[in-house]
Specification:
Layout: E1 7-12, H1 18-27, E2 31-35, E3 39-44, H2 46-55, E4 61-70, H3 74-84, H4 87-90, E5 97-103, H5 111-130, E6 143-150, E7 153-159, H6 181-191, E8 199-201, H7 208-217, H8 238-250, E9 265-269, H9 272-284, E10 291-295, E11 309-312, H10 323-340, E12 345-350, H11 353-357, E13 365-371, E14 374-382
Parallel strand pairs: 5-6, 8-9, 8-11, 9-10, 11-12
Antiparallel strand pairs: 1-3, 1-4, 2-3, 4-7, 6-7, 12-14, 13-14
């Protein structure tokens, strides 16, 4: 596609993973990539946008910008929405829609009120044009519109993803405090693990970190089982979409990209039912042959022949587990790692600095991330 047919896009990214997200989008062919707050800006064309939707692992959503216009107050927002986009093409009255808003401007400080202004502008325009209006559908709209306010302007975009991209479809059931799949993928990316050395999680829960790692190493595209809102867009290109689907499917392989076999990927989980769930999730994700999940206590964990990468998301006492009961768990975890994992890199997601102190280890890196609204640190320890 030519430069004239390119457009601006925004990827909504978990906090703390913006730089990682920018790297991923660049690797997938996006241009003018820029890390923002909880987002990544980029440029692409339709073919590239389809590729990003199917293959990017870190975004929650990928938005396509339709218009930007000056906006300093609510009247300008109302008028700008009506005149900046050809709504006869994008939103005929038989289609349902929803509006989400972010950011703020003077007099437009509440996102719900800003979204309401946009909704009113759209249905008023429709009534004037057709004498009827679209219905609002918050759960499964035909068109999902996003407005971002800031810097004296409004940016109107449409969401191509539909349901959040973090829902890969392989987790029919989840534990008490599941790690979102896109966050797990980002955490693995931060470790630098590439599949050439063993990866282990001695407290693997439902297996999300290991599954995302195996999918990444074996090129399994995350969006192949997803249903996308962009398929209902007026300029949807079926031929380009089919090509993008074929390309995403062809990226899957049984070994690493350079032809070497995938190193051991192993997990340990104390709860037998949760271990069964993790194995079922790995099978649903298409990577059950690549991951070995055993039922057992992390205190008896025996790592594969090292060196390797150890990842872990133990309970923080925020949602599950009692803090007093968890301190011995962290102490035992630190002891096990130091005794048995010499030469390994250990990465732990911490939502509680007091508990992490019980490891009696000094982190060499502390990367701030957010897990379900909890302020966390992805901690890196080199085990000697």
């Amino acid at each position: 596609m030519t430069e004239q047919m390119q457009f601006q896009g925004t990827a909504v990214i978990p906090p703390g993973l913006e730089a990682c997200g920018a790297e991923e989008l660049s690797a997938l062919g996006a241009t003018d990539v820029k890390a923002l707050h909880r987002a990544v800006g980029f440029r692409t064309d339709l073919a590239g946008f389809y590729r990003l939707q199917l293959q990017a692992r870190l975004p929650f959503r990928l938005l396509r910008q339709l218009a930007v216009f000056p906006c300093r107050h609510r009247e300008e927002l109302y008028a700008g929405v009506q005149r900046s986009v050809d709504w006869s093409e994008w939103l005929p009255p038989e289609l349902s829609f929803r509006v989400d808003a972010s950011g703020s401007l003077p007099g437009l400080t509440h996102s719900h009120y800003s979204a309401l202004q946009v909704k009113n502008a759209l249905v008023d325009w429709q009534r004037e044009r057709w004498g009827e209006r679209s219905s609002v559908d918050l759960d499964n709209p035909d068109l999902s519109i996003h407005v971002h306010l800031g810097g004296g302007q409004a940016r109107l975009s449409v969401d191509g993803s539909g349901e959040s991209l973090h829902r890969r479809g392989y987790r029919p059931r989840m534990g008490l405090a599941p790690l979102k799949e896109n966050l797990a993928a980002g955490l693995i990316r931060l470790t630098g693990w590439d599949g050439s050395v063993p990866l282990a999680d001695p407290l693997c829960g439902s297996g999300t970190l290991l599954i995302e790692a195996a999918c990444m190493a074996l090129g399994r595209a995350p969006g192949l089982d997803h249903r996308f809102a962009l398929e209902r867009w007026p300029d949807f290109n079926g031929q380009l979409w089919t090509q993008a689907l074929e390309q995403a499917g062809q990226s899957e392989r049984q070994q690493l990209a350079d032809g070497r076999p995938l190193a051991a990927v192993v997990g340990l989980e104390l709860d037998g039912e949760v271990a069964d769930q993790a194995r079922a999730n790995a099978e649903a994700a298409g990577v059950s042959d690549a991951i070995s999940i055993q039922c057992g206590d992390f205190r008896s964990f025996q790592p594969p022949e090292g060196p390797g990468v150890l990842v872990c998301n133990p309970p923080y006492g925020e949602r599950i587990g009692d803090r007093d009961a968890l301190e011995p768990l962290y102490a035992d975890l630190g002891r096990m790692v130091k005794e048995r994992c010499s030469g390994w890199d250990f990465w732990l997601l911490s939502g509680n600095p007091e508990l992490t102190g019980a490891l009696k280890m000094k982190a060499s890196r502390r990367i701030p991330v957010s897990n379900g609204g909890i302020d966390c640190r992805w901690l890196h320890y080199s085990i000697h």
